[in-house]
Amino acid sequence: MSVSFIRRIATPKKALSTAAVAAATVGMALTSAPAHAATTASGADARSIARQMIPDAAQFNAFSNIVNHESSWNVHATNSSSGAYGLVQALPASKMSSAGADWKTNPKTQIKWGLDYMNSRYGSPAAAWNFWQANGWY
Predict the structure, then answer these.
(1) CA torsion sign, 24 to 26 to 27 to 29?
(2) pLDDT single digits (tens) 43-83
(3) DSSP letters along 89-120, please?
(4) What is the chain's alpha carbon radius of gyration, rounded to the nearest angstrom?
(5) Confidence class for position 42, pLDDT limits 50, 70, 90
(6) Where is the signal peptide (predicted)?
(7) CA distance 60 to 67
(8) Residues contacting residue 44 through CB under 8 Å, at least 6 positions apart
(9) What is the pLDDT of residues 8-26, one digit of tens each?
């Protein structure tokens, strides 16, 4: 070990400033992570994303009714008996991977998959809601 290295460690002021710079650098690296790296979205966030993705008020309300009943807008909602997962309770959950690799945590990906499912199977979120009301599932 060199004498200059030992001196740097032995000098408290330098050691503290070096630690502060290192901590600040780590902090900057953590705060500069992309926004999509977040794994938790509130129900209000998810609802806001859905509102942007579904501009028609009637279709949004129908979609919202289904999500309220299925998951209460919880991106991580899991049905313990069936394994259905996410905002729209996809079964199997992995089907949502067709909408994006971040399907486990991203409300936008789950909403996209749910809309595609409702449109392809029922014709629209409103028709899916009508089916849900008659059957208790969709």
Answers:
(1) positive
(2) 899 999 999 999 999 999 999 999 999 999 999 999 999 99
(3) TBSSGGGGGGG-TTTTT-HHHHHHHHHHHHHH
(4) 23
(5) confident
(6) 1-37
(7) 10
(8) 73
(9) 444 444 444 444 444 444 4
| 125: amino acid identity, one letter | P
User: What are the tokens at 7?
Assistant: 């001196």
Q: Residue 31 to residues 19, 24, 26, 47, 102: CA-CA distances in angstroms?
A: 18, 10, 9, 25, 20
Give the Å distances, CA to CA, from 78 to 44, 58, 68, 90, 136: 19, 27, 14, 10, 17
Helix (H, G, I), strand (E, B) or coil at 78: strand
N residues, the chain: 138
User: What does the pLDDT read at residue 31?
Assistant: 38
Amino acid identity, position 17: S
